[in-house]
Design goal:
There is one protein chain. This protein has 185 residues and is mainly alpha-helical. Helices cover 65% and strands 3% of the residues. β1 and β2 form a beta hairpin.
């Protein structure tokens, strides 16, 4: 049974944090979806190029929102889980959240570096972002490999985060998932 006070304001994240959390999930789905779906189209085709452009733009939007999310997170303490989880579980939660923030900031940054090093424009909803580094094809290949590897690891991190939330909700029944659900207090 869930604790009776699970939805009290002190036990929930604030609305900006909740909104940014779920918006980031939608962005992750769109960023990963656009790059995976591009494979359905021939190289150089208009749909494939459009999906790659959307991947870049949505990734950069995620980058900008990750900083807002980090600011919201640092502006106050997270609501406590009650009962408090064991030390190792608490540590693994903190490490997973840190890894997700590194993913949210690092992936778009490495994507920006790849485009910069290949000499390609960096599109952002009608704007073109400046290159971060000069053209260097060899460096671009290395950064792209890192970007793709970390992108694969991202599936594990996101899946692990979701599984932990479901574990807390359905097995521990401690209200952890409810703290991040939108809704009235």
């Amino acid at each position: 049974m869930m604790p009776a006070n699970r939805k009290s304001p002190a036990n929930r994240y604030r609305a900006p944090s909740i909104g940014l959390h779920w918006l980031m999930l939608l962005l992750f789905v769109a960023v990963y979806g656009s790059i995976e779906l591009r494979q359905l189209f021939e190289k150089g085709s208009d749909p494939r190029e459009a999906l790659k452009t959307w991947h870049f733009m949505l990734g950069m939007l995620a980058f900008a929102l990750a900083w807002l999310r980090l600011a919201a997170r640092l502006s106050g303490p997270a609501p406590a889980i009650r009962p408090e989880p064991p030390g190792l579980q608490h540590l693994s939660s903190r490490l997973l959240h840190l890894a997700l923030y590194v993913l949210m900031i690092g992936m778009p940054l490495t994507g920006w570096l790849v485009l910069s090093a290949t000499g390609k424009p960096i599109p952002f909803f009608g704007l073109e972002l400046p290159a971060l580094i000069g053209e260097n094809k060899a460096l671009a290949r290395q950064i792209k490999e890192l970007h793709e590897t970390v992108g694969t690891i991202g599936y594990v991190l996101i899946g692990g985060h979701a599984m932990a939330a479901l574990y807390h909700h359905y097995i521990k029944r401690d209200g952890t998932l409810v703290r991040m659900l939108p809704g009235r207090d």
